[in-house]
Amino acid sequence: MVWKPHVTVAAVVEDDGKFLMVEELIRGKLKLNQPAGHLEPGEDPARAVLRELKEETGWQGEVRHLLPIHLWRNPDNRKTFLRFSYAVTATRFDDTAPLDDGIVQAVWLTADEIHQRRKEWRSPMIGRCVDEYLRGHRLPVDTVTHINPTKDP
Length: 153
Prior knowledge:
This protein has about 150 residues and is α+β, with helices and mostly antiparallel strands. It is about 20% helix and about 40% strand. Strand 2 and strand 3 form a beta hairpin.
């Protein structure tokens, strides 16, 4: 059997002490998450996080830093996720942008408000990312590089 973790990206967007989060319906239950999603084939993770940010919130942004990378196994379905989270600055909002299926709304919450809603988290990576961001954990964006065989020699 070949082990294949699900590779995902997430945007940690902070502005004036509040974090941009999404409320989404997962199997009929409201869950709280950072704007996040799966890496698509051939996609650079730093570009993928900006795509997910726009698709789930209507915000465009600029990637500033890579945050610590997480490997997590969901105890409910036994799926493993490898998550690349990025600190992103929100730059422009499009209030006419359609949101991905399942996204109820984007909300700005303080770290305390996020932790108060712990039972709604889609995964424990949500609180971990916020806490690591607040502690100043930062890596250069080019820590993860994308080698595109159609463009690179």
